[in-house]
């Protein structure tokens, strides 16, 4: 009887084990229905408590109300003051564990800012801008610095810039040392550094290219304040064991941007520019075209050839408007290599050996040589067509009546001061001419003015012009219509300035921020921007302190800020057949 009972118990146990195994192997299906969880994980308790004092351990544990994950911790986590060695930080279930690998400084308030690193396991909801604060001394530092980082030229907010504080004042600090406190700007350029000591600080902002918290690369964009800054007081919760759970939970949720903080002036970013003149580029662009590009406009350029030519007239020079780019048009087709010395105002002295790269040979000259060769070897009496150069024009189907028609060629023309043009207005034929606009005769402008609301056809006959390589122009035929004054608008801008010691550059920009027009003023002025197409525009004012008629960047070590820029506070809207008048006080 006893054996039967034991067998019965054994069978029951086996069946129970099998059932449990089957249950454990079954697929777990998340219950359907119900609203999606959109709440981020929240801290419920921690050891030690947030904002605690007299911390003397090496581990912090923070418990959350749900399972958590860490995302992009390397880029999101900021610790102030910085540590020599990053702590080990892990998410285990609902607990965040922080283990320090070095001895912390005495009587120091530490802030661990997690950014968007903490998310929940199931939905990926982000606990944004969470921070944990503690002190190794008896008090929590409670001073704050906040503000905004913007681009000095565009005034647009700068995202993901490190804002750094140093507790001593040497100018070399950003080059040599990591900051004592730091924060990171948000999407709108704002930042806040909390829990500071009540002392003056040097402040510096950096787009850190190599993540070493030092200004050590020329490509790194920077900003700085002209003088030391003083933080302002911000109250904090002082944690102790007598606090109730509700207060503890609320204090754990404190975010650095929840309180209206003291703001310094905007930090304005810029890229430093090396002021040394250099030859940036020297090369054959194509057969017969040699280009020189300089870092800055040249002052006293001297280029000497080391080649020995049997002729003196071997090139034509063409400069761009800013005089930082020079083109040598070579008049002898056999020149495909040159040895030169280049010197500008004794700032540099380069010796160059330039050779035309075979893969760059796309010039019409080679095409002509090939055509002539084929024609010579061909038995056909039909002449082969020699390629022609095609002119480009500024015309469009609807053309502004107040503009001048222009056209240009890829190569300089043999000396032409004027070119015959046929301009047909409606049914009337006008024999007019185009005037050369540059010293190398590549750009031409039609003499006659256009009428409003008329249909036109422009005709440039072929073979009127011959370039320096012996090629003739192709024909140009273009039909277009002019607009009328009723289709455009004007802007009248009354500018008043308080500082008559400086020049201001007033720029009119398109909606895509392209400079359309600019004026230079040093007193109260009424500016008229005429013949504007209907649409949106922007206005920018640059304080031109050195009167060189351009915006200048800054230099940290010389304590020079970038020249100040002001954007007109509203977008300018131009309507057809309308004069818009605006006032701007600088």
What is this entry, summarized?
The protein folds into four domains: 39-271, Sandwich (Immunoglobulin-like); 279-360, Sandwich (Immunoglobulin-like), CATH 2.60.40.10; 392-483, Immunoglobulin-like; 488-585, Carboxypeptidase-like, regulatory domain (Immunoglobulin-like). The protein is 9% helix and 38% strand.
Number of helices: 5
Helix and strand content put the structural class at mainly beta
Estimated helix fraction: under 10%
Computed over alpha carbons, the radius of gyration is 37 Å
Extract low-pLDDT stretches.
25-30, 236-263, 360-364
CATH architecture level-2 label of the largest domain: Sandwich
* Beta-strand percentage range: 35-45%
What would you call the shape?
elongated
Distance between the termini: 108 Å
CATH class annotation of the largest domain: Mainly Beta
What is the CATH topology of the largest domain? Answer: Immunoglobulin-like
Number of domains: 4
Number of strands: 41
If strands are numbered along the chain, what order do they take across the biggest sheet?
A: 26-28-31-30-29-32-33-27
* Largest sheet descriptor: 8 strands, mixed
**Mean pLDDT, nearest integer?**
85
